[in-house]
# Entry
Amino acid sequence: MSRRTEQHPDLTDPRIGAPFFSTWRVGTPERQQQTVEVIGRTWERRPWPAGDLLGYHVYTGHDGSTLMHHSQWSSEQGYEAFVKTHRQERVDEIDTAVPGIERVGLGRYRRYRSRERNIGDVRVPGLIVTVRIDFEEGAGERREEWVDLVLKALGEDPEGDAGLISAHFHLSTDGGHVLNYAEWESDQAYDEALAAPGTDVWERVRTYPGVKGSNGSRYRHALGLVPG
# Structure
């Protein structure tokens, strides 16, 4: 069966071959919570759909309107088989209970590198921040170099990012962007990091050739589902 978990996902699990992220627009904070509960009930009533699915997590956006979904698959083929056999019945039940959900799209990724949690760090993330960094057409090969530079900047400025628990950099399979999934201690810790004076390496990150733009979103972990 499917069961709920309070645990945040482990994005460094070596079994994950196909991490997916997607966004739904639901309109209001009340509909956010309603949709999370409906998703939980819909999944708990059914057997876990596939051995290739390692975990499924839902997050409420600070904007009061969106939900982010993160599913951890061992392979894209496992996801495609789920779509053919088990996805639609779940979608239909959720849409019946909460009409009018707008599904913005599904992003497919591979994790490239992480700034991992320090050994012995037992902090529970109070804030999840995702930042999408878009690259100009033809500059996709620069994405790995950019991530390497970010991790260098983080390594040289530990005090400025003291509230950062971990950061996981994913490359989109379409070659167009990087998605950083970061766990922060709190909103305050993240705001303090944003306000901290930048280093020379951070300036190189911000002005890196080929970067077209970026946008970020704040979330709370609302629902975790794993095999029962």
User: Anything to note?
Assistant: The CA atoms of residues 27 and 65 lie 4 Å apart.
